[in-house]
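Late entry, written up from scratch paper. The run itself happened at the end of the previous shift, but nothing got recorded in the book at the time, so transcribing now.
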Amino acid sequence: MAGVYETIRQHVFSLEIIDTHEHLPAREQDRDASGDVLSEYMQHYFAADMVSAGLDPARVPMLSDARIPLDKRWQMIAPFWEAACNTGYGRALAISVAELYGITRIDATTIGQLNAAFLQARDKGGVYQRVLKDLCKIRVSLLDSILPNQAQPDRRFFVPVLRVDGLIAIHGVAELEGLAGRCGVGKIHSLSDLEDAAERLIDSSVASGIAALKSACAYERHLRFEKVTREAAEGEFNALWSQAAAVGATGGNLRLGDYMMHHVCRLADQRGLAFQIHTGLQAGNGNYIENANPALLTNLFLEYRGVRFDCFHIGYPYQQVLANLAKNFPNVFIDFCWAHIISPSAAVAALVEFLDAVPANKISGFGGDFTTIDGVYGHNVMARENIARALTIKAEQGALDVDRACRIGEMLLYGNPLAIFDLGRFIR
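Output as recorded:
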């Protein structure tokens, strides 16, 4: 059915899309102008695959240090780059390098040429317009920055989301003091103060034009948020002040976190906000994957039925669990952000299965989830390719005709995220 595949692929690649999740600098002028191509590429994802392949983790910070000669840093990683370049992360970079700079391989003979082309493009400017708009055809990206000192985003490219982990995973008094400054309150001395600060922060963020809330608590605790008593949460809150020290970075204040997650969900429910939640694989090297099983969120789905829960990363490796949840709960949605480069084959297989089990309007097809602009391009290509392949499989099975497959492609890449996040408020 080569004709079917080419028809679907051509249509999918022609579409303007909505990107559900990025970590890029909020404005192009905020990109680090002191680094080089390796310092940029080693910020995110592929370095973790090279550590998995055997690279000493202690060397990773050196790879981002542009003061160290480029060829010396390349020598440190060359065997591990070669070992890991087959992964989705490696393939995304290879696609970007080939298409953006015309360099067909990344090795010792080309790294200098690649760096020169990268620096020339960055120094010339206009990279966001060229990559995000002209090449990727992204109408808008939802921006959740993990970068320090993030400015207000360039609204030509981004709509911000509010990360609420600082309201939920609180480890010590220093975090409360920082949160107070962020929320515009003098001090947070009580659980009531913390609840009020959360409401103030969310309301001010809504007024400034956020598209959704976001939590990545699964990096440091499990996703089962119990319905705890106020007294239990208040006891843990008061202990923060009595200890005047951090409890630890392992989600030590679980009851306080449980209580505040329910408080945040109540606020989201009252304000009609979507809530993006990290589920599945955690970035980096080493974590407890069972903490991120989306099934642990079931009590939140049951209680806060007015909140549209957008579950990230297809829950990988819990794809079938997430399919069950999205099938059963009207307020649970599946998001493919990051998924196409975690495992391209798993992403194709998951979409084929999701379209058997889940209404097609509940799936968002792409979120680049990168801190680096080049990574977004490669991921965008892979996502469109994966979606085209999955839709072709459904057509070959006789489950969809070509016209319906193309319409579903439009839903996955534009119509669904437009509706889930009510983005008509921001798109003109």
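DSSP finds 19 helices and nine strands in the chain.
(Scratch paper discarded after transcription.)
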